[in-house]
Amino acid sequence: MERYKNGFLLLGRILFSMIFAFGAMEHLGKVNAMAAYAASAGVPFPKLAIIVTGLMLLVGSVSILLGWKISYGAIILILFLVPVTYQVHFLGMLHATDPGVKQMQMLNLLKNIGLIGGAIYIGFLGAGKYSIDKK
Fold first, then answer.
1. Phi and psi of 56, rounded to 5°?
2. CA 12 to CA 70: how far, in whole Å?
């Protein structure tokens, strides 16, 4: 397995960064719709929050995809994930009255917890040989 390590690190970075790249496109391409959802979740200054978090998603995903300053990219994504996980999904799960919405919020909560773990792992493991930083 060791001989394939760098190839798998690259594949892992590609797959991991995809969810954040798509999220960035959603945030930056549908600002008003995303801001309305954020406002319904109690996010202050929802339009500004969507633009800022969209940029965070973009920078974090590109950093991890390219293997450039990957620890900083992971930190940016964690700084996005922690408040969103709490404000939108944890509180959304607690306050949901519809069982389907409650279940969806729980699934998104657990997904984000896993993504936080993945970002921590990537931040400490590094990008591997097939990256801009080559570490």
1. -60, -45
2. 13
Calculate mean pLDDT across residues 125-132: 92
pLDDT computed for residue 114 by the predictor:
98
Q: How many CB atoms lie within 10 A of CB 98?
A: 9
Residue 65 and residue 77 in contact, taking contact as beta carbons nearer than 8 Å? no
Predicted TM-score (pTM) of this structure: 0.93
Which among 82, 81, 40, 77 is positioned nearest to 60, based on CA atoms? 77
Residue 66, SS3 per DSSP? helix
pLDDT at 135 over 80: no
Residue 97's alpha-carbon distances to 37, 94, 112, in angstroms, are 17, 8, 22
- Number of Cβ within 10 Å of residue 76's Cβ equals 22
Residues 44-76: pLDDT tens digits? 999 999 999 999 999 999 999 999 999 999 999
Task: Locate the domains of the chain by residue range.
Answer: 2-125
Tokens of 93: 């799960």
